[in-house]
Write a structure and sequence with these properties.
Blueprint lengths: L15 H18 L12 H8 L7 H6 L1
Amino acid sequence: MFGGTLVVVTEGISDPEIMEAVACRESLALALDLLLQKIRVVYDNIIVVRNIRGKDFGSYGHVIQEI
């Protein structure tokens, strides 16, 4: 099933951890917009996963808090 698409354009962000966190946040925002109740977000940066699950938000804590 295809529900929608999302494109995010960023300038000046070259840190892969920040971009991974932003991608996760945006995927959750898209799911909310599409009124989806069950989703699976797949990401491959273990540091971002640990920051989302833990209390150490890293340098991109503002993004993690939105998640």
